[in-house]
Design a protein that fits this description.
Elements lengths: L9 H4 L17 E4 L8 E8 L4 E4 L4 E6 L9 E6 L2 E2 L3 E4 L6 E2 L1 E5 L5 E5 L5 E2 L4
């Protein structure tokens, strides 16, 4: 005789899922400082943002080498260097007033748009497009 197997309730089966897109404190074009990892203390401009992976690419940070093979007989091959993505939690935005790393708050502006504000100085941070 087979042992009885009880199914878990729907609530118990439901698992915690990652959000489809993380809300990031940095955007493309921002000046940031790396606070963790091999490149700690380096500053650079954010070149690319990957909200689904919670990663950012910073200019001159986490530079890796890739061996590229020629795709055609006439094409070039060689070793290319490019910045690889790092976790967004490892960078801090630079305060526009003092140039020091700061946390970021969001504030609703008078006209209804949401603006980012530096916690240290209270200065609004402009979006670079």
């Amino acid at each position: 005789m087979k042992p009885r197997v009880f199914k878990k309730s729907r609530r118990a089966r439901r698992t915690e899922r990652e959000p489809a897109r993380h809300k990031l404190h940095v955007a493309k074009g921002d000046r940031v400082r790396v606070i963790r990892g091999d490149d700690r203390g380096r500053e650079g401009k954010v070149l690319h943002v990957y909200p689904k992976q919670f990663r950012v690419v910073v200019e001159g940070v986490n530079v890796v080498k890739k061996h590229k093979r020629a795709t055609t007989p006439q094409g070039e091959s060689g070793i290319i260097e490019f910045p690889a993505p790092i976790a967004a939690s490892n960078v801090m935005l630079l305060d526009p007033k003092s140039g020091q790393p700061t946390r970021v708050r969001r504030r609703r502006d008078k006209d209804g748009t949401i603006e980012r504000v530096a916690v240290k100085s209270g200065q609004p941070i402009q979006r670079v497009r």
